[in-house]
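Ticket #4471: structure export looks truncated?
Reporter: QA, pipeline team
Priority: medium

Steps to reproduce: submit the single chain below to the structure queue and open the exported record.
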Amino acid sequence: MSDIDILSFGETMAMLVAEQTGELAAVEHFHKRIAGADSNVAIGLSRLGFNVAWLSRVGNDSLGRFVVETLIREGLDCSHVAVDNQHPTGFQFKSRNDDGSDPQVEYFRRGSAASHLSPQSISTSLLSARHLHATGIPPALSATAREMSFELMTRMRQAGRSVSFDPNLRPSLWASEQEMIREINRLAALAHWVLPGLSEGRLLTGFEDPADIAAFYLDQGAEAVAIKLGPQGAYYRTQLDQGFVAGVPVTNVVDTVGAGDGFAVGMISALLEHQSFAEAVQRANWIGSRAVQSRGDMEGLPTRSELTAEFEAAFASKLAPTFEMYSPVGASLLAKRPAQTNH
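Actual output as written to the record:
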């Protein structure tokens, strides 16, 4: 059995976060953090006790060293993060909003080290991971990063590993909307668990209703689909089951960035623990709601002890009878997976 529970890949940027509200041009003081949807999910899964390998590139610069040191402190295996002597580490500026609205973000990532990820970045040892999580961000960075995304997802699925995919659309990084839709749907067809937001699903499939969006991806080969509905919760559909799981009420939204990443952490962690898809969506909703109550992209993601103390204490006994009607579809692939050895 592999020592790697989860493989994730993409770009982690340095992030300069405003310490005061207002237009970024007027802000004088910032503090340094990291940002990146893919690594947010990796960090969240690491905090829950999974062994997570991170595949990426950073520049040979101070921001790159800061990124890697931060990821290592979060428990990620960064032995497959390459240092690029020719290209810099990407970074971003993020505004501070105290009214719960989406912050302003300015990116400086074109030509970054991570955009030079390619199929040659893949080490054979990484392919022994139990699970691969992918998003639509790396394939938007460059043609070579897109090739790597297809290669990883194809090889992991062929090897019998489970694969999850969050479209995480970044239209500004694509040459056209048509190209984005075509390529993202090709990638989604390689995943077992597809996790779009409602607006993303509508754009990608042309359907309005969550049930039709989910059916589109099930027809493409997905085992299950969960569609994020924001504060209202999420809709899920599998080949055997479908349902709606209500959102967790939040009285004070602090920072909306990272809610979808928290949702992915909840889905993946619960399914890898052989919980039903409905139970996984419940955990996903809760972690997503927790994320928006903390300032920062990944600061609100819980540790295992926090998950046990807060989520399980609040929901387990209350919801267990309801979940008895659901079949553990999300665990079926894991149950069928053959024994694996290290390469």
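Status: closed, not a bug. The export was complete when the record was re-opened. Leaving a note from the reviewer for reference: The radius of gyration is 19 Å.
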